[in-house]
Specification:
The protein is mainly α. It is built from four helices and two strands, in the order αββααα. It has two domains: about 1-45, no CATH class; about 50-115. The chain has a two-stranded antiparallel sheet. It is rod-shaped. It is about 50% helix and about 5% strand.
């Protein structure tokens, strides 16, 4: 029994990680600079802060991706983050693929909002061309050859 008491007192040690789990408090030693989290929980916390910083760096003031200019701006920022090694190539590839899909839908949205046919059924893209030329005079032709 004395060993259990020693273990329980060591579990309440102030140098222990302060992360709370569903089973209670983490039992690892705190090793981060603030002395509050173990290595694993400090890494997870840093990863969350990095993700928030990346979101701000990528999207910036962009709230919608409804124009090619906005998508180009996003892709430019993505390229810079990749070049600075602040984002993994795999994550950058996924984000580039998604923005490619967004870019491809812009023309479909434009066609939907501006249909190719006007209200009178005429094509708005290729209007019909009417040639107003006089017909040839065929009266002088000899009809006896028929």
């Amino acid at each position: 029994m004395p060993s259990k008491l020693a273990n329980s007192s060591s579990l309440n040690d102030s140098s222990r990680c302060r992360h709370r789990t569903p089973n209670g408090r983490c039992c690892m030693s705190a090793v981060d600079p603030t002395g509050t989290l173990c290595f694993d929980h400090a890494r997870l916390a840093q990863k969350g802060r990095d993700a928030a910083n990346l979101a701000a760096a990528l999207a910036g003031e962009l709230t919608e991706f409804k124009s090619a200019v906005q998508i180009n701006d996003f892709l430019s920022r993505l390229l810079l983050l990749l070049a600075q090694n602040r984002i993994s190539p795999r994550r950058a590839a996924v984000l580039a693929y998604i923005t490619n899909q967004l870019l491809r839908t812009l023309s479909a949205i434009d066609r939907e909002n501006n249909p190719p046919f006007g209200p009178d059924g005429e094509s708005a893209i290729c209007p019909s061309i009417e040639i107003d030329l006089p017909r040839p005079n065929r009266e002088h032709l000899d009809h006896s050859q028929n």
